[in-house]
């Protein structure tokens, strides 16, 4: 039996066993041990879950839904305000807002003092949609929250804050 035959008989290694990163001191790290990789994977799975939930009652995307919830929760919402609250890319916001206006979920209202600025308003159609989707997404949030103890939630959010504060670093000496 040659090496190729032997390799064909073995099951392929799990992704985390194949993907290695060499850390400081030549320490080999599995991708499953890399914080940014784990966060990205979890983010992807949560987004997919949210999308599946939304698709049961609507045809809007997750980013469109997030924009509608920001407009729903605040007065005088502009593209800039959506970006600062949601941290969604401004280009993605612009495309999603155009689509939401075209589909009848949002309307614009010009600022009377600054004609360069316009505010986004929900239409009755958007309010109906949110009445269907918000309870589903709230239930999902409750399940996620309730799956952690108070201590776990405290530690998790403290860790999020610590990592968020480190996102501006570019020098790692």
From TrEMBL:
It comes from Neptunicoccus cionae. The keyword DNA-binding applies. It comes from the Bacteria. The keyword Thylakoid does not apply. Residues 32-165 form the HTH marR-type domain. PANTHER family: HTH-TYPE TRANSCRIPTIONAL REGULATOR PCHR (PTHR35790:SF4). SMART domains: HTH_MARR (SM00347). InterPro entries: HTH_MarR-typ, Metal_resp_HTH_trans_reg, WH-like_DNA-bd_sf, WH_DNA-bd_sf. This is HTH marR-type domain-containing protein. Keywords: DNA-binding, Transcription, Transcription regulation. GO terms for molecular function: DNA binding; DNA-binding transcription factor activity. SUPFAM superfamilies: Winged helix' DNA-binding domain. Pfam families: MarR_2 (PF12802).
